[in-house]
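OP here, attaching both records as promised.
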Amino acid sequence: MNFGVFSLLLYFTFQNMSENQVCKEGIVRGVSEGQVAVEIVVSSACGGCAAKSLCNITEKKNEIIEAKVLPGDSFIVGESVNIEMRQNVARKAVVLGYVLPFLMLVGGLFGTYAITHIEWLSVVAAIILIAIYYLVIKLLDKKLTKDFDFYAVKLK
């Protein structure tokens, strides 16, 4: 799981949510047995801003996502589909990507300062703690990827 896919998981969390799933529309770019490669457009927070054309900092990029195909479904290249994932999995991505690092940063900063009373050392310790956290996330990449399953669903 690269950080582009991880940011996509976070993006899913704040998009159209039904009771049990979150969705993003994409186009099928490849078909293989049991899965499809779907191209989606991931945009930064500025992508939806009304003033995006004025400030010229919009960031949009295309990502190819490997999505599982539900039994009985078939797709062709060029077909528009929805990519779905369970909402609880998207919440887990937010916790791993934002909540835990924030708590570690704040905890490391204030914890080190409470012990040493040296500001610069507290900042360095907090940064090192965050670096270690993201290194562990990167090392657990394969294990974490298994938890995040995307499914291709025909548009209705």
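Record two, same layout:
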Amino acid sequence: MEGPGSTSAGLGRSSFMRTHRFLRGSDLSGPVLVILVTLVSSVCAAQAAGAAAEGKAGGSAERENRPCQFRENDVLAPYRKISWEDYKGKRPRSMGPAAARIQAGIELKSFEVETKKEGDVWVVRAKDICLYSFLDKFKSFYQADVATSIALAHGQGHFDLTEAFTRRLYWTLVGLEARNSEVGLASAELRSRISAEYQKALREWQAMEDLYDKETGHGGYALAQRKWKKKIRGLLATKHAGSTGG
């Protein structure tokens, strides 16, 4: 039987993929612009020691409590303001009129399961949660002659929403616990709850992305885009950033 302390845990691998089309409104000059955006999220098992080795994130208040944040490399970029230079992929001819694609995602790399006995009951919580959003540079691409600042800003909005839901999920997982007289059952229940919250976050993320595109006309409605920029800024400032309520 497991005793008090911490054990590493993971959920296995899962993926979520979808494509957005952004049409530039007819009130804008120039050719019609279509942007394909693929949002990807995955959960992968990893040793908690690996998360600790990455060190604690720093540099901004909203990340100060996160135990990990990967360093930018040639392939992946952590959440930040992006530019067309981050779109390093080769645009396939099969994309037709598509001007660009941005591929962003959420990864829950690892977490530890902390166990503590209170009387006859085992209390199990997740800690040292390694969770972050990212941009895959080589799966993101653009066509220079039709890619505009309007398109770039709309794509940034999608990346911002990805980060907002990453923060929401992090704080949700931090607050989870399971109780049982058997530590193994408590640990299994916690992992089940983490998986359920992850799937819930994906559904809400998808719904918000759809609403963003619908209300902004895929970035073509300037007034709506400005309203969403303000809304997303607010989502990023709150712990439960991705709530679709109210």
